[in-house]
Description:
Largest sheet: 6 strands, mixed
Number of strands: 6
Amino acid sequence: MTRRVKPSLYFSVDIEADGPIPGPYSMLSLGAAVAGRQDVDGYEPADPEKDTFYRELRPISPDFVPQALAVSGLDRERLTAEGSEPAAAMAAFGVWDGEVCAAYGGAQPVMCGYPASYDWTFLYWYLLRFTGASPFGHSGCLDMKTLYATKARLPLRAVTKSAMPRELLSARRHTHHALDDAIEQAELFSNLMVWPGV
């Protein structure tokens, strides 16, 4: 008997933070965009602007790295006063993720990022710390750098966006606004998924 394989729904996620690791430092914004759906018949790109999520979060620590904060241009004082409580933001993200997966026929969510390692570390930590669960489980993430390295037959450390074929890249600017970058990277992901490689 053939085991039924559930489709995957890929969520391009980008976060902006004020330091290298969660806990001592804070995730300040979270952006996500549906990149596409994959089943046994192949990959179907989505319109990355159709299903999106964005929140700016209240810092959880007084500590920050000025250089990291400068990347996003976010104002910690403003976020301390106006940012979403992390528990509320992560709960809203979990609800949104579930609703979108249901709309795509009960597909299983997979987070994808460029690189996934940094964004996944913050996202997973925040989900577990503030909601006790992750819709992605403990391993539902896919790194775009690894995907490209495999298809291009390159060592991972040789991978940069500037070295990729131009047709793989999104025409959108990388702005360091979490939602802008999630949408941009969703386009990159879809291009990588359908690219046959070298």
